[in-house]
């Protein structure tokens, strides 16, 4: 069973390390700008780093779910490759947001695009599974026949 | 293996689409009220939409975990049906919160109720697994005997 | 298959119950200090409880992912034991943060330490899987030979 998920698991660990990096960046920013918890407001420089981390955290479960479903129902390698693209996009988003609000936009659209592709792959491959499981209709086979 | 999880996967994709819809609503509200990131405070109308999205995001991983555990340890179809109820409850919660703080309460209690049922189903079916696995005690069999 | 994940599932349900407890604490604090949603700012006593819940929610998906990957790729019992330590640490963190910002630090470092151990266990056991799967190199066997 593990050989069906090891690439997904590897990308997931990379994702966890990326999240850890974002958390550490917020801790450094708190020290730099002298903003102790529980405070979350401060100069725009701090708030941008803070919001970049919060936004990445909110998307993390959604990313993982799509990565694993696309990997299990369609193709592990493709899902893992898209996962790596997403993690790169997230890194650029974080670094861009740190600089300015507008510099976050391009990598934000890129990451969102990758997520939409993963969503489409998941949804279509699950739909394909339903059709072949309940109706006996194998679309992939029909297309390649 | 996939035929044990395809209903759970389908409900999960619907959940992801719902979360995407909530994120888009926040983006529209930011434009409407002219509140650019990283700012998160503004008129109550904006803050209600923003909080509705944040609250839904915080509950999303908990929902997914309960959905999948109830589905794997008890019954996939029942878990998926409860999952659909939860997603409906969340939609009504979001739409209610958009109107007023008090209009979020009824669907909030409904969603929370569904989550508690999923928690009970997960906990009891895992307990049942432990009892039959380690003690050899099959309660379901005893009850139906 | 379920006997490979029942301890992970049991710890996960405990984690969900802990998160539910944290959510309830925020609801009680909102009533106590008279802070109705969507407001999230108030006296430091309220903000500490609120931030303790938000922080625990942000870490919850990361914790779950590491718990399950360490359990699947290395050892279920060890992962579940580390998971219990993490949940204890989180409880002390929440209770500490409720009292004062500084009282959260020791359990915060403890929880973070447990997460780093889970990360290392996950990463190394996945690396080990890759090595034995693709290179045919079984390090554990070499070490014990």
Automatic annotation (TrEMBL), chains A, B, C:
<dbReference type="InterPro" id="IPR023352">
    <property type="entry name" value="MAPEG-like_dom_sf"/>
</dbReference>
<keyword id="KW-0539">Nucleus</keyword>
<dbReference type="InterPro" id="IPR001129">
    <property type="entry name" value="Membr-assoc_MAPEG"/>
</dbReference>
<keyword id="KW-0434">Leukotriene biosynthesis</keyword>
<feature type="transmembrane region" description="Helical">
    <location>
        <begin position="108"/>
        <end position="131"/>
    </location>
</feature>
<dbReference type="GO" id="GO:0004364">
    <property type="term" value="F:glutathione transferase activity"/>
</dbReference>
<feature type="transmembrane region" description="Helical">
    <location>
        <begin position="7"/>
        <end position="28"/>
    </location>
</feature>
<protein>
    <recommendedName>
        <fullName>Leukotriene C4 synthase</fullName>
    </recommendedName>
</protein>
<dbReference type="GO" id="GO:0019370">
    <property type="term" value="P:leukotriene biosynthetic process"/>
</dbReference>
<dbReference type="GO" id="GO:0004464">
    <property type="term" value="F:leukotriene-C4 synthase activity"/>
</dbReference>
<dbReference type="GO" id="GO:0004602">
    <property type="term" value="F:glutathione peroxidase activity"/>
</dbReference>
<keyword id="KW-0472">Membrane</keyword>
<dbReference type="Pfam" id="PF01124">
    <property type="entry name" value="MAPEG"/>
</dbReference>
<dbReference type="InterPro" id="IPR050997">
    <property type="entry name" value="MAPEG"/>
</dbReference>
<keyword id="KW-1133">Transmembrane helix</keyword>
<keyword id="KW-0812">Transmembrane</keyword>
<dbReference type="GO" id="GO:0031965">
    <property type="term" value="C:nuclear membrane"/>
</dbReference>
<dbReference type="GO" id="GO:0005789">
    <property type="term" value="C:endoplasmic reticulum membrane"/>
</dbReference>
<comment type="similarity">
    <text>Belongs to the MAPEG family.</text>
</comment>
<feature type="transmembrane region" description="Helical">
    <location>
        <begin position="59"/>
        <end position="87"/>
    </location>
</feature>
């Amino acid at each position: 069973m593990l050989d069906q998920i090891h690439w997904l698991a590897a990308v997931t660990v990379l994702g966890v390390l990326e999240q850890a990096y974002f958390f550490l960046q917020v801790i450094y920013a708190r020290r730099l700008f002298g903003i102790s918890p529980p405070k979350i407001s401060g100069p725009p420089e701090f708030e941008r780093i803070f919001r970049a981390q919060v936004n990445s955290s909110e998307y993390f479960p959604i990313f993982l779910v799509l990565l694993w479903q696309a990997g299990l129902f369609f193709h592990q390698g493709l899902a893992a490759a898209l996962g790596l693209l997403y993690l790169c996009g997230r890194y650029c988003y974080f670094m861009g947001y740190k600089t300015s609000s507008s510099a976050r936009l391009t990598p934000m659209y890129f990451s969102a695009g990758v997520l939409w592709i993963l969503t489409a792959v998941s949804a279509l491959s699950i739909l394909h599974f339903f059709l072949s499981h309940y109706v006996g209709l194998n679309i992939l086979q029909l297309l390649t026949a």
